[in-house]
Amino acid sequence: MQRLLTVLFWSVIAAAFVGPGTVTTCARAGVEHRFALLWAVVFSTLTCLVLQEASARVTALSGRTLGEALRRRFHGGIGGALVLVLVLGAIVVGCAAYQAGNVLGAVAGGALAFSMPGTAAILVLSVTAGLLLTLAGARTVARVMGLVVAVMGLCFLATALLLRPSLGAMLQGLAVPRVPEGGGLLVLGLVGTTVVPYNLFLGSGLARGQSLGEIRFGLAVAVGLGGLISAAILVVGTAVQGEFAFAALADTLGVRLGGWARWTFAVGLFSAGFSSAITAPLAAAMTAKSLFDRGDGERWGERSWRYRAVWLFVLVCGAGFALAAVRPVHMIVTAQALNGVLLPFVALFLLLVVNDRRLMPQEGRNGLGGNLLMGIVVAVTLVLGLSNLVRAIGSLLA
Question: What is the rounded average pLDDT for all residues in the chain?
């Protein structure tokens, strides 16, 4: 029973990265390249697991969250202040920018299953998220999101299995890493939608009070489940002929498998949007707390106005853009640029911290294999970050 609760608790990480963006990216990969990019889903999942485990290990063995360790490493002076502003800006602005997509993704799923006016759906979803964040603590929210992830996983996995995909084609896509023509950006997108910087702060903040064994077990199962859901979404995407759209995919599933499949996809999409619409504000608040909490009472406690102001800002921004039916292009581009800088920085910082003798006990520091693995992850996130940054600057200048 305790292990099940641990998995439910850490499923908040899967809830955070399997959102409408992941549904779109994975489904598009299936639509455009069939099973050829399944290996990229696996690689992205392993990359996510490596970084999440390192972030949680820092907290479990040093007693400091990732934000606190960041303060310790870069303290004082203009440089230290710039680091804090960069991290906080990228996380909070990024969460606020993508919150609208989370809300609209959930509303799109609800619209496919039920007939409900968009404005009412946005308000109901946003108010529900706000009430859950107000009335429940972070650990309770994490477990609730675990249940939502379970529903989402069942929906997408059941649909993928009933499509009866070619086992040989799937194995080839898993075993032969290749980038088909025009698939480079999708590979970067698959990594970028799975390895999310704010998740590292969220996971680190949740790791307090847990043993390293519990953390590793919970993360391995939860992140692995998230990767399995992503792979299932890619498989579901292979059912579509032509240009990808949520409605087109739902209609195709309805024709091939029956009306229930359309409803199941709709519930899965709603669950993806709803879970991310709650975890994005939560992650922003926990990041701000880890960066600015000095341990002096309840100034940054979960019931404090500072903590609530951060998640409320993200929640209101998302609801506002969704209600205005405006795609927050410039805000999203800015978030991409900031995350493009932040992702490799955080990955490199983690590599330095888990080898820091002043911070980590000997049993918590990386060995040769761990450093090699994290070095590869740092290199990949650097390429990803620079690519996102260049694309964002290009979009702003276009």
Answer: 81
Q: What are phi and psi of 262, to 5 degrees?
A: -60, -45
Q: Does the pLDDT value for residue 149 go beyond 90?
A: no
Dihedral sign for Cα atoms in the order 306, 310, 313, 316: negative
Structure tokens at 353: 């911290």
- Determine contact, residues 10/222, Cβ cutoff 8 Å: yes
| Contact status, residue 8 vs residue 214, Cβ threshold 8 Å | no
The tokens of 343 are what? Answer: 């992702």
Residues 6+ apart with CB under 8 A from 54: 350, 351, 353, 354, 374
Give dist(CA 17, CA 92) in Å, integer: 16
Instruction: Report long-range pairs for 209-216 (Cβ below 8 Å, ≥24 apart).
Output: 210/60, 211/60, 212/57, 212/60, 212/61, 212/364, 214/6, 215/10, 215/53, 215/56, 215/57, 215/60, 216/53
DSSP character at residue 273: H
**pLDDT tens digit sequence for 321-374:** 888 765 545 555 555 555 666 777 778 888 888 888 888 888 778 888 888 888
* Segments in the chain forming alpha helices (H): 2-17, 20-33, 38-62, 66-73, 77-113, 118-135, 138-162, 167-175, 184-194, 197-206, 212-237, 246-257, 259-292, 305-323, 329-353, 368-397
* CB 132 within 8 Å of CB 144: yes
pTM: 0.85
Q: Is the CB of residue 174 less than 8 Å from the CB of residue 227?
A: no
- In 10 A of CB 115, how many CB atoms? 6
* Angle between helices 212-237 and 246-257 in degrees, nearest 10: 80
**C-alpha 352, offset from chain centre:** 23
And the tokens for 140?
């309770």
Gap between the Cα atoms of 199 and 28, Å rounded? 24
Please name the amino acid found at residue 368. Answer: L
Are the CB atoms for 38 and 170 separated by under 8 Å?
yes
Residue 299 neighbours by CB under 8 Å, 6+ apart: 293, 306
N residues, the chain: 398
